[in-house]
Write a structure and sequence with these properties.
- The complex is a heterotrimer of chains A (268), B (396) and C (289).
- Chain A is an all-alpha fold and 268 residues long.
- Chain A contains 11 helices and no strands.
- The longest helix of chain A is centred in the N-terminal third of the chain and has 34 residues.
- The N and C termini of chain B lie far apart (57 Å).
- About 5% of the residues of chain B have low confidence.
- Chain C is an all-alpha fold and 289 residues long.
- Chain C has one domain: MetI-like (MetI-like fold).
- Chain C has 13 helices and 2 strands.
- In chain C, strand 1 and strand 2 form a beta hairpin.
- The relative contact order of chain C is 0.12.
- The mean pLDDT of chain C is 87.
- The chains are: A mainly alpha (268), B alpha/beta (396), C mainly alpha (289).
- Chains in contact: A-B, A-C, B-C.
- At the A-C interface, helix 1, helix 3, helix 4, helix 5 and helix 6 of A face helix 1, helix 2, helix 4, helix 5 and helix 6 of C.
Chain lengths: 268, 396, 289
C-alpha cells in the first residue's frame, strides 16, 4: 500500500459522499412513489400504495412498456450484428480509411442527441417516411451500434490472434473459425454490449422524441408527456421505481453468466 | 469491380428507403375541397388529437369529469391525445400529418385554414351545430369565405392569478406583473410563448395611450419596441416562464411563485390543494384570450371519428363538463344549462352570453406584416419577428 | 447450410470482397442513415420556412437562416453559456470521480470494489427524466434542499438560475466519468507508484507527475461524454432552470417547424464536438472508451 492512512480516510469519506450524491434523487423518487399528494411539493403529505394500482391498470403504460421492449430488442439485435461485423473488420484487417471508420463510429454517441434527432426527423419528413416504431428502431440502432462496436473492439484488443490463425492453418473456413474460436471468446463482450445497448435504447428520450410519431409511445416518451400533465406525477414515480427494480434482473443475469464482468460494462 | 458492387448495393438500399417512405397523394374528385365529407360513415376505431391540456379528460383526475370514455364507448373510436405547449407548436404538430385534428386557438386556426392544412366542415352532418351560439359561428378565426372550418369548443380569457397569503390586497390591474413586479421579485409567473407580447401591448394600451395601439397583435415598430422594453423590465424582475400547465401548478403549490398570468384551468387544479390559497381576476385593462375551435386535418386518417368527435364536443353534456373543468365559457345554451347542474353560476361567471365582456378580451390571433387591415400604408411586425424577439428575450 | 458454406468459401478466396461485404452493412448504415440525415439537416440550413403557412420550402436555396442566426447576438450568448456549463460539468465530474475511482482501484477490498462498481452503474438504469424531475423537487422552493439548508440560513440555487443545471448535469454524467477513470487506474502498474515513492516523491507529486499523465486518455474519454451530453441537453435546462441552452434553441425551433434556423445553428455544436473529438483522439481517448 502506497497511500498513507490520512489519504485513505479522506478517500473513504469522499467515496461515501459521492455515493450519497448518486443515490439522493433515487431515494426521493422512491419516496414520491408513495406520496399521497398529486403534486411534487415537499415534504410528502402521506404514504399510500394507490398509485401502484393505478399504474398497473393504466393501458397506456402497458402499451408504452411493450413498445419499449420491442424497440430495444430490435435495436440491440441490429446493433450487435452490425457492431460485430464492423469490429471484426477493423481489428483483423488493415484497409484504407480504417482510422476514419473508428472515428465515424463514435459520432452517433459523441454528437449531441438533439442533433441526431432533428437530423433524422427532417430526413424522415423530407422522404415522407411515417414516424412510428420503425423509425424509433432505426434511430436507436444507429447509436446502439457504437456501443456494441466499442465493447467488442475493446475485447478483441485483448484477444490473441494465434487461436484464429491456428484454426485457419488447420483447414477451417472463416465461418467455422468464427463459430468455434472467435464467438466463444467474444460472448461476454456481446452480452455486455447487448445489455448496454438495450439499457441505452430503453431509457432513451432525446432522440426518441424526434423519431416517434403521434401514436407510438415508448416508456420514456410516456413519462415525458405524463410529467407535463398535472396529477400524473406519482404514477410516473411508480413506473420509474418499478423499472429500477426490474433492471436488477438483467444485471443479475449478466453477473451470473460472466462473473460480474458483463454487468459492469465488459471492461472493468 | 467490388467497389462498384458495393456502391450499387448502397444505392439500392437508398432506393428502398425512399420507396418505402413515399407518401401517397390522395386524389380528390374535382369540385370538392380536400377533406370534405358528404356523409359520416362508421368510426375507423382510432382518433389522434392535438389538444390544450385539460380539453380531453377521461376521468383520470376526477371521475366525475370524463367526456372521452362515453365517446369511445358510443363510437368505438379510441382517443389518443397530445398536448401542445403553444399555438405555434400546435400548428407544427398538425402539419406533421400524424393527427386527425385538434382544438386550435385563433392564432393557429387562421394559418391552418389559409395553408389548406385543415378542411372545411360539412356542418349539415353535425346535429349539434344548430344549437351553438350564433355569436361564435362564422367568425374570422373559424371560417373562410363563409364556409365553417371547425366547431367552437369554448372561449375564455387569460387571467391574473395570485397566492392570497402573499399578495394580501386583491389586485385589480395587471400592475403586479409589470411595474409593480419588484415587490414580488423572482416570483412572477409568465406564459412562455411569443404570443405573450400581446399582453405587454394591452398593458401599454392603458398606461401609454400615446403609442396608439388599437390591436395588440398588430404592432408597428415603435409599439413593438415599447412592448419588448416592458418585457425586458419584467424579465429583470425575475419573471419565471411556464411552458406547461403542470409546471406552473407545481411552482405555485410549492410557493416558488406567487403571482402571474394563467388559464383558469391551473387555478381550478390548485384549488384542490389545501396548501395554497389561490384567487383570480380579469384586470380592468382587459386581457388576451382565446376562442378555440375543433378542426379536422385535411389529410386526417380517421375523418369519420373526427366528425363524430366534433359533434360530441358540441353536445350539452360534453361541452358542459369540458368548459366547467377547464374554466371557460360554453358554446350553447344547452351546454350552459348542463353546466348549471354541475357548477351553479358557471355561465354567469364566464360570461357565456355576455358579448360586452368579450369586448375587453383580445382573442389570440396571428401577427401579420400587413397589419390585417385594409390600409395598405401600415406595416407591422409579423409572426416570425415575434418569435425572433421572444427567443432573444428568453435567451439573454 | 451448404449455401452459406458455399458463400463463405467464395468470400474466403476474395478477401477484399469479404471485407467490403462485412463493412457494407454497418458502414452503409452509418453512412446512409446517420451521415445521410446529417447531410439533409445541413441542406435545411440553406432553405427557409414560410412565415405564414409554417412550411419549409425544400430545394429553394437561400442564406436567410444563416442571416438570422448570425445577425442576432443572443445565439452567441446562448452558445457561450452552454459551453461554459459543459466545461464546468466536465471539470466537476473529473474532480468528483478521481477520489472514488482511486479508492475503488487502490484502497478498497475486492468485495467493496465489486459492490461499488455495481452501485455506480445502478443509477444509470433509472430513468433519466425521472432523475431530473427528482432534482427539480429537491431544488424547488420549500423543497428538500431548502428544508436541509434552511436551519443553516443558506439559500439554495433555486430553479431560475443556471447553477441548478450545472448541479444536475454533473450528477447525471458522473458515472460516465468514474468508470473510464477507474479502468485507467487499473492499468497503472503498482510498481510505478512504488518506484515514485522510493525515489522520494510525496503523495501530491506522485499524483501529479505519475498518475495524472497516465490517466489522460481515460479523462479524455470520460470528458467526451460529459461535455457532449451537456452541450446538447435541452431537457435539464427546461426542467430545472429558466435559461436557454444550445439544445433548447434547436428543440424549440424544431417544435415550431423552423428546421432551417435549427439546422443553421446546429452547425456550431457539431463543429465544436468534431474539434473536441479530434483533440480527444490525440490524447488517446479512443482506446479508453
Amino acid at each position: 500500500m502506497v497511500e498513507s492512512r490520512l489519504v485513505r480516510m479522506i478517500l473513504r469519506v469522499a467515496t461515501a459522499f459521492v455515493m450519497a450524491f448518486l443515490y439522493l434523487p433515487l431515494v426521493v423518487l422512491g419516496l414520491y412513489a408513495f406520496n399521497e399528494s398529486k403534486l411534487g411539493a415537499w415534504p410528502p403529505t402521506g404514504l399510500t400504495l394507490k398509485w401502484f394500482g393505478e399504474a398497473a391498470a393504466n393501458p397506456a403504460i402497458q402499451t408504452a412498456f411493450i413498445n419499449s421492449l420491442i424497440a430495444a430488442s430490435c435495436a440491440t439485435l441490429i446493433a450487435l450484428i452490425l457492431g460485430t461485423l464492423a469490429a471484426l473488420a477493423v481489428q483483423r484487417h488493415n484497409f484504407f480509411g480504417k482510422n476514419a471508420v473508428s472515428f465515424l463510429f463514435v459520432l452517433p454517441i459523441a454528437l449531441p442527441g438533439v442533433i441526431t434527432g432533428i437530423a433524422l426527423q427532417s430526413t424522415f419528413k423530407l422522404f415522407g417516411v411515417g414516424l412510428g416504431l420503425g423509425t424509433i428502431v432505426i434511430a436507436h440502432a444507429t447509436f446502439c451500434v457504437v456501443v456494441a462496436y466499442n465493447n467488442i473492439v475493446a475485447r478483441m484488443r485483448r484477444l490473441p490472434r494465434s487461436p484464429e490463425e491456428a484454426s485457419a492453418d488447420l483447414g477451417a473456413d472463416a465461418l467455422t473459425t468464427f463459430r468455434r474460436i472467435t464467438y466463444p471468446a467474444l460472448r461476454t463482450a456481446l452480452l455486455s454490449g447487448g445489455l448496454l445497448a438495450f439499457a441505452l435504447s430503453f431509457d432513451e428520450v432525446i432522440v426518441t422524441l424526434f423519431a416517434a410519431g403521434a401514436g407510438t409511445k415508448t416508456i420514456p416518451v410516456w413519462i415525458f408527456n405524463a410529467m407535463q400533465r398535472p396529477n400524473e406525477l406519482p404514477v410516473v414515480n411508480v413506473v420509474a421505481l418499478v423499472l429500477v427494480g426490474l433492471s436488477i434482473i438483467p444485471v443479475w443475469i449478466a453477473q451470473r453468466v460472466s462473473g460480474g464482468e458483463a454487468a459492469r460494462g465488459g471492461r472493468y | 469491380m467490388k467497389r462498384l458492387q458495393l456502391l450499387v448495393a448502397i444505392a439500392g438500399l437508398a432506393l428502398i428507403v425512399t420507396a418505402c417512405g413515399g407518401s401517397t397523394a390522395s386524389t380528390e374528385p374535382s369540385g370538392k375541397p380536400a377533406g370534405w365529407l358528404d356523409a359520416v360513415g362508421e368510426g375507423e376505431g382510432a382518433l389522434n388529437l392535438i389538444i390544450w391540456e385539460g380539453y380531453a379528460e377521461r376521468g383520470a383526475v376526477d371521475p366525475a369529469y370524463d367526456w372521452v370514455t362515453p365517446f369511445e364507448t358510443a363510437t368505438g373510436c379510441k382517443v389518443s391525445t397530445t398536448s401542445m405547449t403553444d399555438s405555434a407548436n400546435g400548428v407544427q404538430l398538425l402539419q406533421s400529418g400524424e393527427y386527425d385534428g385538434g382544438s386550435f386557438s385563433g392564432d393557429a386556426s387562421v394559418r391552418l385554414m389559409k395553408a389548406g392544412d385543415v378542411a372545411p366542415v360539412n356542418v349539415s352532418l353535425l346535429s349539434n351545430y344548430a344549437n351553438v351560439f350564433s355569436g361564435l359561428k362564422d367568425k374570422a378565426h373559424n371560417s373562410l369565405d363563409g364556409v365553417p372550418y371547425g366547431v367552437p369548443h369554448g372561449r375564455g380569457a387569460n387571467v391574473l392569478m395570485w397566492n392570497s397569503d402573499v399578495v394580501t390586497t386583491p389586485p385589480t390591474s395587471w400592475d403586479p406583473v409589470w411595474e409593480g413586479g419588484s415587490a414580488y421579485k423572482g416570483k412572477i409567473s409568465v406564459y412562455d410563448s411569443s404570443i405573450y407580447i400581446a399582453d405587454a401591448a394591452i398593458h401599454l394600451m392603458a398606461t401609454q395611450p400615446a403609442l396608439g395601439i388599437t390591436d395588440p397583435y398588430q404592432l408597428n415598430d415603435a409599439q413593438f419596441a415599447a412592448a419588448i422594453a416592458l418585457l425586458e423590465a419584467q424579465r429583470d424582475n425575475g419573471a419565471v416562464y411556464w411552458g406547461t400547465a403542470a409546471d406552473q401548478i407545481t411552482s405555485f403549490a410549492s410557493g416558488d411563485l406567487v403571482v402571474g398570468t394563467t388559464w383558469q384551468y391551473q387555478a381550478n387544479m390548485l384549488a384542490s390543494e389545501p396548501k395554497v390559497k389561490i384567487a383570480t381576476t380579469l384586470p380592468a385593462e382587459g386581457s388576451t384570450g382565446w376562442s378555440d375551435t375543433w378542426m379536422m386535418a385535411t389529410k386526417a386518417k380517421h375523418p369519420n371519428c373526427m366528425y363524430l368527435w366534433m359533434d360530441h364536443m358540441m353536445s350539452a353534456q360534453a361541452n358542459g363538463q369540458a368548459t366547467v373543468w377547464f374554466g371557460e365559457a360554453p358554446t350553447s345554451q344547452a351546454a350552459c344549462d348542463y353546466a348549471e347542474t354541475i357548477s351553479p353560476g358557471h355561465c354567469e361567471q364566464f360570461h357565456a352570453t355576455d358579448e360586452a365582456y368579450f369586448e375587453k378580451v383580445w382573442y389570440w390571433s396571428t401577427p401579420q406584416a400587413d397589419c390585417a387591415d385594409a390600409d395598405a400604408a401600415t406595416s407591422c411586425k409579423d409572426q416570425d419577428a415575434w418569435v425572433e424577439a421572444w427567443t432573444t428575450l428568453r435567451g439573454n | 447450410m451448404t449455401l452459406i458454406r458455399r458463400l463463405v468459401q467464395w468470400f474466403s478466396r476474395r478477401p477484399r470482397a469479404a471485407l467490403s461485404a462485412q463493412l457494407a452493412g454497418p458502414f452503409g448504415w452509418i453512412l446512409l442513415i446517420y451521415l445521410g440525415s446529417l447531410f439533409v439537416l445541413l441542406l435545411h440550413a440553406f432553405w427557409v420556412k414560410d412565415s405564414f403557412t409554417g412550411k419549409v420550402e425544400p430545394f429553394v436555396w437561400t442564406l436567410e437562416a444563416f442571416g438570422q442566426v448570425l445577425g442576432n447576438p443572443v445565439y452567441l450568448t446562448i452558445a457561450l453559456r452552454t459551453i461554459l456549463i459543459a466545461t464546468l460539468v466536465t471539470l466537476t465530474d473529473a474532480l468528483l470521480a478521481l477520489p472514488i475511482a482511486y479508492y475503488m482501484s487502490r484502497v478498497a477490498s475486492p468485495r467493496t470494489r465489486a459492490i461499488l462498481l455495481v452501485g455506480i452503474t445502478m443509477p444509470l438504469w433509472a430513468s433519466y427524466l425521472v432523475k431530473v424531475y427528482a432534482w427539480r423537487t429537491i431544488l424547488q422552493g420549500n423543497g428538500l434542499l431548502s428544508w436541509l439548508l434552511g436551519p443553516l440560513g443558506i439559500d439554495g440555487p433555486g430553479l431560475s438560475e443556471i447553477w441548478s443545471t450545472w448541479l444536475v448535469l454533473s450528477y447525471l454524467w458522473l458515472p460516465y466519468m468514474i468508470l473510464p477513470i477507474f479502468a485507467g487506474l487499473e492499468r497503472i502498474p503498482n510498481s510505478l507508484l512504488e518506484a515514485s515513492v522510493d525515489l522520494g516523491g510525496s503523495a501530491g507529486m506522485t499524483f501529479r507527475r505519475v498518475i495524472l499523465p497516465q490517466l489522460l486518455p481515460a479523462l479524455a474519454a470520460g470528458s467526451i461524454f460529459t461535455f457532449s451530453l451537456s452541450l446538447g441537453d435541452y431537457i435539464v435546462p427546461d426542467l430545472v432552470s429558466d435559461a436557454k441552452f444550445i439544445g433548447n434553441v434547436i428543440y424549440d425551433n424544431s417544435a415550431l417547424g423552423n428546421f432551417p434556423v435549427a439546422a443553421a445553428f446546429s452547425i456550431l455544436p457539431v463543429v465544436i464536438m468534431l474539434i473536441y473529438l479530434l483533440l480527444a483522439r490525440r490524447a488517446g481517448a479512443f482506446e479508453s472508451l
